[in-house]
Task: inverse folding
């Protein structure tokens, strides 16, 4: 009986934490590198060699 209770507790806790993490980080997290590359893509910054220039043209 206690094994089932412990298993249910662990599953419930994992589900609550997964939901909380999804809620906090929805719709996603954009890192500095992604923002830097995106700004080059939209023309806000000049293209440089920090990222491969091909990535700017692919986006």
Result:
């Amino acid at each position: 009986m206690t094994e089932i209770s412990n298993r249910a507790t662990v599953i419930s806790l994992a589900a609550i934490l997964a939901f909380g993490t999804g809620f906090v980080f929805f719709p996603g997290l954009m890192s500095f590198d992604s923002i830097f590359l995106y700004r080059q893509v939209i023309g806000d910054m000049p293209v440089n060699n920090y990222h491969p220039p091909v990535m700017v043209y692919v986006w």
